[in-house]
């Protein structure tokens, strides 16, 4: 039978810039698989503006850590050879690899050039606040360290439609490049009037040569790395019609199994639906609205009504296209979209994405292994491991929700015949100690279930009618299921080691 799949975002913002990350991935592949992770989303693999850059300040798309450019041969994460070897090691261990693509902008140009722009209001990019004038912009990319290897395409201001720095005057602004067929693209998010422009030199996808080059690069990259899919960065700022074309071309190149998920950072469900319609549902989207619900729940404590936790979320309305997550590199503390789910609710939040029927859940490296940098955060591997185990072994079958109390919710997965002993009962409290009477099936009568999180050490005996009362500690989660002692082919359920409250 088809087992549940789980993705890990295999980086956080402050991963050490020591060039060892691809080696770490290769070494940890067996451990990840043993923890029931069967896909990883890796950070941008392309050369950025410095060896310390996380990868989103992208310079050369064809330099994967092979050429001496921008201060080093390697990227923040290692060399091209180490990357290829890490992906091969993951595939050997049954782990799919999704590579992060940054296609919205380019940074760290090799030369300046003079061209005409119109300055626009940063809060309304459709509003011009200057007459046309000339600036000296960093928009010429010649890649002297790579030359024409892999691609002879050289970028200049005609391939962009906006930039943010005038080297002549030494000042910043949002400058729309002037010229024939130059305008903001209309198939983008409408925040700030038009959100085509995000940062650096903004790639112009109305330019035919640009579209062709980016499609060629996408095909070259997948051939070079033999990866299993892509994560597309910042797609609300990129011509949605191009994203549709890109997804279609990658599918033709690599087959229908080639997986693409997009970062469309918008918690408006109507906007998400319109985007999915535009791209013909060829890609999945991260469930940003659910992330913000989990964040609000962690801030609100007992004042948050848990019965509404899934209202107006992508996983509720478009379950087949929803990639669920608790936190990521942008929402972690001190980063651009900081909205960090509080520690007390973190294990409950992971139960809400890992143990339900719908969505493709992602475990964040920073939650699992911890966050580095100036303000470190300890990892919660011990709290997440029991949930990963339960997801892989237990969380199957019909789902019955008991969302009938604002502070205590629960659900049951009935299990499937193909996996003897599968099925579980999950209960979450954001208030006081609680309990919930739930039906797990008459065939389970007499079974003695335990809490796989070990937040509670008592046991629950299933009644003759298939019902039982399942308890939970205040501000905590318990995951009740039949222990696996008699199933000798299964690993022992790991202990939580920490209380979610």
TrEMBL record:
Residues 482-501 are annotated as: Disordered. Its EC number is 3.2.1.1. CDD domains: AmyAc_bac_fung_AmyA. Coiled coil: none annotated. GO terms for molecular function: alpha-amylase activity. It is an enzyme of class 3 (hydrolase). Keywords: Carbohydrate metabolism, Glycosidase, Hydrolase, Metal-binding. It comes from the Bacteria. Its cofactor is Ca(2+). Residues 5-391 form the Glycosyl hydrolase family 13 catalytic domain. Pfam families: Alpha-amy_C_pro (PF09154), Alpha-amylase (PF00128). Belongs to the glycosyl hydrolase 13 family. This is Alpha-amylase. The lineage of its organism: Bacteria, Bacillati, Bacillota, Bacilli, Bacillales.
């Amino acid at each position: 039978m088809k087992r549940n799949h789980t993705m890990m975002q295999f980086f956080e913002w402050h991963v050490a810039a020591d060039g060892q990350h691809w080696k770490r991935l290769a070494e940890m592949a067996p451990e990840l698989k043993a923890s029931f992770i069967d896909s990883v989303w890796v950070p941008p693999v392309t050369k950025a503006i410095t060896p310390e850059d996380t990868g989103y300040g992208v310079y050369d798309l064809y330099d994967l850590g092979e050429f001496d450019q921008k201060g080093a041969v390697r990227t923040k994460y290692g060399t091209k050879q180490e990357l290829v070897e890490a992906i091969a090691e993951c595939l050997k261990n049954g782990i799919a690899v999704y590579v992060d693509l940054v296609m919205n902008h380019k940074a760290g140009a090799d030369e300046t050039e003079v061209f005409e722009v119109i300055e626009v209001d940063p809060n309304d990019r459709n509003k011009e606040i200057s007459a046309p004038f000339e600036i000296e912009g960093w928009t010429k990319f010649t890649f002297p360290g790579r030359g024409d290897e892999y691609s002879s395409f050289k970028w200049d201001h005609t391939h962009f439609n906006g930039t943010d720095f005038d080297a002549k005057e030494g000042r910043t602004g949002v400058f729309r490049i002037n010229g024939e067929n130059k305008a903001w693209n209309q198939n983008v998010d409408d925040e700030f009037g038009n959100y085509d422009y995000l940062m650096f030199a903004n790639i112009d996808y109305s330019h035919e040569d640009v579209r062709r080059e980016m499609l060629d690069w996408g095909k070259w990259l997948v051939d070079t790395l033999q990866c299993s899919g892509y994560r597309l960065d910042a797609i609300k700022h990129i011509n949605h019609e191009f994203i549709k074309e890109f997804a279609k071309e990658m599918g033709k190149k690599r087959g229908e199994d080639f997986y693409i998920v997009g970062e469309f950072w918008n918690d408006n469900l109507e906007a998400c639906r319109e985007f999915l319609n535009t791209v013909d549902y060829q890609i999945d989207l991260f469930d940003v609205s659910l992330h913000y619900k989990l964040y609000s729940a962690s801030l609100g404590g007992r004042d948050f009504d848990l019965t509404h936790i899934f209202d107006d979320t992508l996983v509720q309305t478009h379950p087949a296209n929803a990639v669920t997550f608790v936190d990521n590199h942008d929402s972690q503390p001190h980063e651009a979209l900081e909205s960090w789910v509080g520690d007390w609710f973190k294990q409950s939040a992971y139960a809400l994405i890992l143990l339900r029927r719908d969505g493709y859940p992602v475990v964040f490296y920073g939650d699992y292994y911890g966050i580095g940098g100036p303000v470190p955060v300890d990892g919660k591997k011990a709290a997440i491991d029991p949930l990963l185990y339960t997801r892989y072994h237990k969380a199957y079958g019909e789902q019955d929700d008991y969302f009938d109390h604002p502070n205590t919710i629960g659900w049951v997965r009935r299990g499937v015949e193909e996996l003897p002993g599968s099925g579980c009962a999950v209960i979450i409290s954001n208030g006081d100690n609680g309990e919930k009477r739930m039906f797990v099936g008459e065939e389970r009568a007499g079974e003695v279930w335990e809490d796989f999180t070990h937040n509670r050490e008592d046991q629950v005996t299933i009644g003759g009618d298939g019902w039982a009362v399942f308890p939970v500690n205040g501000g905590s989660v318990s995951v009740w299921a039949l222990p696996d002692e008699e199933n000798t082919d299964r690993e022992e359920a790991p202990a939580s080691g920490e209380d979610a409250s």
